[in-house]
Amino acid sequence: MNKAETEYPVESGGTFFKGIFIGGLLGAAAALLFAPKPGREMRSDLSDKLSLATDKTKEVAGVVTDKTKTLATTVTEKATDLASTVSSKASDIFTTVSDSKDQIAATLAETGKKIGDTVGDASKDVASDVKDASKDVADEAKATSKDVADDAKDAKEEVKATYKSTY
Fold first, then answer.
1. Is the dihedral of CA 10, 16, 22, 26 positive or negative?
2. Is 45:37 a contact under the CB 8 Å cutoff?
3. Which of 6, 16, 84, 134 is deepest in the core (most CB within 10 A)?
4. How far apart are the first and last CA of the chain?
5. Higher-scoring residue by pLDDT: 69, 21
6. What does the alpha-carbon distance between residue 3 and residue 130 come to, in Å, rounded to a whole number?
7. Per-residue pLDDT tens for 79-106?
């Protein structure tokens, strides 16, 4: 509900008719008190006015009832049409989502297979590169080890020669 609806609630038809009835009674009482006519004429006029007001009230009530029935029928038809449309659209959306789900699953499966193949190929390439690098490192280590051994042997000879010449 918006602010205006909460501040000014719609009155029911029964409340409206009660207001008309009470207003009519108050008007009749005021007319009796302030009327310059004799009692019989006044009662006759009041009776006529009351009959006229009652007839008008019944007429308005009949019109309101007819309008309410027409409005209720229209609302029912519109609600039924809307429900049918919503149901149809929901079914279409479900079908679309289901089809999309199947397409996505197929795409994911295919992509997963491609990724697996790519990872397998990359793994083989990495293994080959590691093997080659290991061989190169081993060869380099052997060469370096031989150089270090030769350098150590030369250093040992120099230390020995320096020791013998000093002592």
1. positive
2. yes
3. 16
4. 114
5. 69
6. 76
7. 999 999 999 999 999 999 888 888 998 9
- Tokens 């006029």 correspond to what residue? 45
Q: Which among 15, 47, 54 has a CA at the least distance from the CA of 31?
A: 47
Encoding tokens for residue 141? 């280590």
Q: Token pair for residue 104?
A: 């996505």
Rounded CA-CA distance 93/82 in Å is 16
Tokens 């197929």 correspond to what residue?
Answer: 106
The two tokens of residue 144 are: 């370096």
For 52-79, give the DSSP string: HHHHHHHHHHHHHHHHHHHHHHHHHHHH
Question: Which is it for the CA torsion 35, 38, 39, 41, positive or negative?
Answer: negative
pLDDT, tens digit (0-9, with 9 covering 90-100), for 112-154: 899 888 888 888 888 888 888 888 888 888 888 888 888 788 8
